[in-house]
């Protein structure tokens, strides 16, 4: 009986450590947004994929990347870009389109990452870029402030977004490689991070 309790406690410690390392990597990646970068070169799609692939509980896969995104938004909007906002900004205008795209990216990641390997990481990065491009540009058009609310306006909006797709794809590929690669190396170096059901 004592052996079973000890094994259970050890497994819980492994799960907590596993969660802590994943959450730390995601938060660090989210805050890397403060480093100067090309337009749309962002870690946010990759952290959704990473969470979907590695968290043991589905709610963690959705909540931790979104929370890290929101915290980094708070810092960026109220510290770095404070001069552009008249008061403390909890959410920027139209945030729900971007956040919605990150939730969809995480959902896609759950289906893509039945197994974590090079192919699934690249597939996930491509899916992430596609989802973000479609959702975010649709959101710009749906706001009704920049383009006519018709098919021509929607087409023009998507066409205007194409130059930014390069940065999105490069960011998704780069950060996916960094996150998945770093954690894979950590698991090899520290086997305690390898969960039985992971």
Task: Kindly describe this structure.
It is a single chain. This protein has 198 residues and is mainly α. It has one domain. Helices cover 74% and strands 0% of the residues. The chain contains 6 helices and no strands.
**Poorly predicted regions:** none
Domain count: the total is 1
Could you give a short account of the major beta sheet? Answer: none
Q: How large is the count of helical segments? A: 6
Write the layout of secondary structure elements.
Blueprint lengths: L1 H30 L12 H11 L3 H23 L14 H18 L5 H25 L8 H39 L9
Helix pairs in contact: 1-2, 1-3, 2-3, 2-4, 2-6, 3-4, 4-5, 5-6
Which descriptors apply to this entry?
single chain; 198 residues; mainly alpha; 74% helix; elongated
Please provide a brief summary of the model.
The protein has helices at residues 2-31, 44-54, 58-80, 95-112, 118-142, 151-189.
